[in-house]
Amino acid sequence: MGLLSIILSIIIAILVFLLLKKERVLGIQTETENNNKEVKIIESKDYRKNINKLLDYFPEGVLIIDKNKEILFCNNSSKNFFQIEIGENINSILRNPDLLNSIDQAFEGKNISDLEIEIRNQTIQRLNITVYLDNDLLFFDQLTCVLFIRDLTEFYKFQQLKSDFVANVSHELRTPLQSIKMGLESFDNNSDLKNNSEFKNLLPIMTSQSERMENLIRDLLSLSKIELQEHIRPTHEIDLIELIDYIIKTYDKMISKNNTKLKFNKFDDFKIIGDRDKLIEIFTNLIDNSIKYNDKKDKEIIITAKKENDLNIISVADNGIGIPKESIHRITERFFTVDPSKSRSVGGTGLGLAIVKHLVTQHRAEMLINSIENQGTTIDIKFKAL
Ligand code: ATP
Ligand code: MG
Questions:
Q1: Which pLDDT does position 354 carry in this prediction?
Q2: Torsion-angle region of residue 144: left (phi > 0), alpha (psi -120 to 50) or beta?
Q3: What is the pLDDT of residue 287?
Q4: Nearest-angstrom CA–CA distance, 224 and 165
Q5: How far apart are CA 65 and CA 100, in angstroms?
Q6: How far is residue 48 CA from its own chain's centroid?
Q7: Are 117 and 96 in contact (CB under 8 A)?
Q8: pLDDT value at residue 22
Q9: CA 354–ligand 2 middle distance (angstroms)
Q10: Which ligand neighbours the alpha carbon of 322 most closely?
C-alpha cells in the first residue's frame, strides 16, 4: 500500500511538472506569435510607405480609391493633374461617366481596357487611364482600385498639328487638280488632238494618274479627319445585318461587274452601338480589297455574322491572292502595299486599311487578319454586342 502511494505520488508529480512545462512552452509560443505579427505589421507598414514614396516620383499619375470612390492615396503627378487630395471623392472631381463606370466594373471583377478621356480645367487635357483592381491587397488592407494615368495632351497636340498640315496641303492640292482634270476632259473631246498619236497614248495615262491623285487626296483628307475624331465614341444603335444588306445592295453592280459571287450568312439580333457612315466605310473598304486582290476567274466573298460571348463578329473572307505572312502585321500602316505595282494597277493608294483601323478603334472594336497566300484572306471585325 505504502509503495503504491509512493508510485502514485511520483506519477502525479511528473504530470504536474509536465503540465507546468507545457504552459511555459505555450506561453513562450504565444509571445513569439505576437512578436511575429508585430514585426509583420511594422514590415508591411514600412513596405507600403516605401511604395508610396516611390510612386510619388512616378511621372504617371497613380490614384488609389476604395469602393465608395474615396481617394486613399494620390501621388504627386495625380495631384497635379486633378488638384485633388486624399479623402476627397472622385465622383465630385472627375465626372466622366466612362471612367466612373469602369471603376464600378473593376470592383465587380470585370476586365477593363484602357480608357482615353478628355478633361477641361483651365486647359484641355487628354488622359489615358488604366483601371486595375488590387486583388492582392498590395496597397491597403481592403479592396481598392488603382488608376494609372498617363498625360497624352502633348502627343495629341502633335497629332493635331500633323493632321492640320495634311488636311491643309490636301485641300490646297484639290483646286489645281480639278483644273488639270477639266483640261484633260476638254483635250479628250478635241478630235484634232485625239488624232495625234503621241497625245493619244499620253492622254489615258494622264487621266488615270490624275484620278489616282484625286483618290489619294480624298483618302488623306478622310484619314486626318478620322484621326482627330478617333476618341469620340459613336452613339447610335445599329443593326449590322440591315447595314450589310444595304451595302451589298448598293454595291451589287460593282460586285457582279467584277465576276464576284457574294454570300452573306446572317444572324438574328445583331445590334451594336456605332456610326452608320463609318461602318459603311469599314465594310466597303474590306469588300473593295476582296475584289481588287483576287486574280481568280470565280471570285468569291463570304460575309459571315457570328456571335462569340458578348461579341458580334462580322467576318469578310475571300479566295484571293492572300497576303504573305511577313506582311500581315503591316497592312494597316498608311501607304503600305504588299506589291506596289499591283496596287497601283488596281487604283490602290495603301490608305484604305489605315482608315479602317482608325474607324475600328473609334468603335472600340478589334480587327483580326488571317491570310494564306494564293488561298485567300479573312478579316474579322469584333464589336461589343448591344
Ligand atoms: P486603297 O484602299 O487606299 O484604295 P489599297 O487597297 O492598296 O488602297 P489597303 O486597303 O490599305 O490599300 O490595303 C493595303 C495592302 O494590303 C494592299 O495594297 C494589298 O497589298 C493588301 N491587301 C489588303 N486586303 C487584301 C486582300 N483581301 N487580299 C490580299 N491582299 C490584301
Ligand atoms: Mg483598299
A1: 94
A2: beta
A3: 95
A4: 9
A5: 12
A6: 33
A7: yes
A8: 46
A9: 9
A10: 1
Amino acid at 295: D
Strand partners, 220: none
366: three-class secondary structure by DSSP = strand
Say which residue the cell 502627343 belongs to. Answer: 155
Cell of 254: 460593282
Angstrom distance (rounded) from CA 286 to CA 238: 19
DSSP 262: E
| Model-wide pTM > 0.85 | no
pLDDT means per 10 residues in the chain (386 residues)? 63 55 45 60 70 86 93 91 88 84 89 80 84 87 92 88 86 89 88 82 88 88 85 91 95 86 91 95 95 92 95 97 96 92 84 94 95 97 94
pLDDT tens column, 244-262: 999 999 988 888 888 899 9
Nearest listed ligand to the Cα of residue 332: 1
133 contacts 107 by C-beta, under 8 angstroms: yes
127 within 8 A of 156, measured Cβ to Cβ: no
Segment (H or E) for 307: strand 299-308
Look up residue 4 and give its amino acid.
Answer: L
How far apart are alpha carbons 96 and 233 in whole angstroms?
Answer: 13
Q: Which of 83, 78, 82, 48 is CA-nearest to residue 63? A: 78
- In angstroms, the CA 289 to CA 348 distance is 9
Within 6 A (CB) of ligand 1 lie 219, 285, 289-290, 292-293, 318, 320-323, 331, 336-339, 343, 348-354, 377
Under a CB-based contact definition with an 8 Å cutoff, are residues 303 and 290 in contact? no
pLDDT tens digits, one per residue of 5-57: 666 666 665 654 554 444 444 444 455 566 666 656 556 677 777 888 888 88
Give the count of beta carbons closer than 10 Å to the beta carbon of residue 342: 14
Check residue 70 and give its pLDDT: 94
Helices (H), the chain: 2-56, 76-82, 90-93, 97-107, 153-189, 191-195, 197-229, 240-250, 252-257, 276-292, 340-345, 352-362
Ligand 1: nearest atom to the Cα of 322: 29
